[in-house]
Design a protein that fits this description.
- This protein is mainly α.
- Helix content is 83%, strand content 0%.
- Helix 4 crosses helix 7.
- It is elongated and about 55 Å long.
Length: 193
């Protein structure tokens, strides 16, 4: 089912307006589109490694802006649809507890979804639903998406085509391990000090 979207994304990465297409894919991927922008970034950077940082910047900015759309979707549709359903079933209090817990850890949740293969769009929408502080959401998104896309660009810029196979095969595992180590470090610091 996703193959046509994937093939289309690869095709437009070679288009003369590829940067515009990349911005669009990055924007909509953060709220609704199923294919990550990495699919376009990799061939674009390998075609001209001198544009690696520009491509990472475009991807990061568009992704964060798209995340704000996801946030708005969660916020607007929850008020119209979700809240009345929760109230109908008497679950509004339980949702408030969930929202409080989510918002306590919101920066980490957004950051984790921003750098790992977990669908970032789910977190952007959930952040709107729970009314996560918008500034926290933006900062965590900029840091996470920037880290992810600039790391991919940096690896491609430095190593070139040989790193492509490694990234395509193990990107999810690499970013998940990195995030677990990072979060583990912060937890260890909290418990030790």
């Amino acid at each position: 089912m996703l193959r046509p979207f994937y093939d289309w994304t690869l095709r437009v990465s070679g288009h003369r307006h590829a940067e515009r297409w990349l911005a669009l894919v990055s924007f909509v991927e953060s709220s609704i589109f199923p294919i990550p922008p990495d699919v376009m970034m990799v061939p674009m950077i390998l075609a001209d490694r001198s544009k690696a940082w520009r491509i990472a910047l475009i991807t990061t900015i568009a992704s964060v802006l798209g995340g704000l759309l996801g946030y708005a979707i969660g916020s607007l549709f929850f008020e119209a649809i979700g809240q009345p359903i929760l109230e109908l079933y008497g679950k509004a209090d339980k949702f408030d507890d969930f929202a409080g817990m989510y918002n306590d850890w919101g920066a980490w949740v957004v950051f984790g979804a921003g750098v790992t293969p977990f669908p970032y769009k789910v977190i952007t929408i959930a952040s709107g639903v729970t009314r996560l502080d918008i500034l926290v959401f933006i900062i965590a998104s900029v840091l996470a998406r920037g880290l992810r896309f600039f790391a991919v660009a940096g690896l491609l810029w430095y190593f070139g085509p040989p790193i492509r196979r490694v990234l395509e095969k193990h990107l999810g595992l690499i970013t998940t391990v990195f995030f677990v180590l990072l979060l583990g470090g912060f937890v260890a610091i909290k418990w030790l000090f």
